[in-house]
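Researcher: Here's the sequence for the chain we discussed earlier.
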Amino acid sequence: MELLLIRHALPVRIENPEGEPADPPLSAAGIEQAARLARWLEPEPLNALYVSPLRRARETAEPLASLKGLELRLEPGIVEFDHDSEIYIPIEELKEQAPERWRELVQSYALRDMREFRELTLSTLERIVKDHPASRVAVVCHGGVINAWAGYVLGIGNPMFFEPAYTSIHRTLISSAGPRTLVSLNESGHLVGTR
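Model: Thanks. This is the structure I predict for it:
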């Protein structure tokens, strides 16, 4: 079985002063990234397509679902760890405009207790794997979800050890005997020539 984890495309920045959770749509660049992702994966067979219920993930998955004729399967167990935050600032924007704030954010990840998030993420992905033997399944999700899974496969304890690019693809081969092999991290050939 092959599991493809895909990070959502670039969303817009949202800051909700009323305290409601930020659930941003894709930016114009993100819409283009999602279209490129769909074209890139067009030749590959896919048996199922799961997606986080957050808007940025759904909008990223829609072109791929349409092109492949697949149903989007909403999966709450792959939502991002900070999905209830009232602010969403794209990490590249934060890095460029407020490097100190970005460093503080990255350091806070190391201090945050991510056990519950990680357990939910891993149990959800393991269920998807179990439900689709001898298949290729794509899961459009978030950077935290990808870090949790990749860290689990590689035996890394740090909950956020790398920065997945927007619409990057992360492949894992899963043997029927159980072993998981990480084949790629941060595949982004479909983004060549974009900013």
